[in-house]
Hints:
With 309 residues, the chain is an alpha/beta fold. It has 2 domains: 2-156, Rossmann fold (3-Layer(aba) Sandwich), CATH 3.40.50.620; 189-306, Beta Barrel (Elongation Factor Tu (Ef-tu), domain 3). 31% of the residues lie in helices and 27% in strands. It has 10 helices and 14 strands. The protein has helices spanning 28-44, 57-61, 76-85, 98-101, 105-114, 138-148, 167-175, 179-186, 201-205, 290-306; strands spanning 2-4, 16-20, 47-54, 90-95, 121-124, 151-154, 159-160, 163-164, 191-198, 211-213, 226-234, 237-246, 256-261, 272-283. Strands 1-4-3-2-5-6 form a 6-stranded parallel β-sheet, sandwiched between helices. It has a 6-stranded antiparallel barrel with strand order 9-10-13-12-11-14. Strands 7-8 form a two-stranded antiparallel ribbon. Helix 7 runs antiparallel to helix 8 (179-186).
Amino acid sequence: MNIFYDFENVSGIPNAVVTTGSFDGVHIGHKVILNRLKKIAAEIGGETVLITFHPHPRKVLYPETAGKDLFLINSQREKISLLQKAGLDNLIIVEFTLSFSRITSMDFVQNILLNKLHARKIVIGFNHHFGHNREGDYDALRKLGVIHGFEVEEIAEQDIQNESVSSTKIRNALKEGNIQKANAYLDHQYIIIGVATKSSVVLEEIGFPSYSVKIEEDCKLVPPNGVYAVTVSGEDCFSRAMCFIRKNEEDPINTEVAVHLFENYGHIEGQVVTLLFHKHMREERSLKTPEDLKKQLTIDKNQVDELIF
């Protein structure tokens, strides 16, 4: 997958099939759009293109209201990883600024989609808007397509378990600790990607050596405190594990995320690892002594070990 951080260096994309959006979570609805892009690109000998934004537009446009407490399913690194796995050809990450937000839908189409990308076809999700004041939509694109010679397609709203899928609903499920519901909406495991470092000496002393995984962005959405069944995947390991989360509400980037691996892979300190979440096992409990903690973690490990994942 080619990654661009501006439009100036984008060139040579044949028969570009383009979509745009935040794609937070790269959930099942996003995958429908991406699969449609790939199908069209294969038919016309083209390549798929996603134009996405960093930081999230709400963080820039409404920093004291809608963007203030917005936590995202994915860090930028995580979103790139998921899009690569989804088979996207070209990713353009636009720095979203107040200046960029003032570009009209007409200028966005003319100057970017046509002049820069030479788009052959544009695919958008249900009820998608773009451009200054969200003035651009499917009807506006379709009319411009007739004038400028490109095609436009709108993907219908996707449903799962009779509920419409959205990044907002996935965020709400994660905030409640409902990992299985979030994973069903995502069509993959919720993930945390970060660098592994040595964790608490206390855990090692009671027989549960573990690693800490650093949260990379302060707007990353982390599930509630407690114990989780996870898989740890890295350069030198792939292991079932249990994960302990303890949030720092005042400083989210220093939230504690520790993992105890079930399989012995040696040391993974300094490696970038991916935690794939399967189930919330229990809430955090206050335990008075190391012996109490060891007993509880032994119970936790046995319960996680009984799961099939």
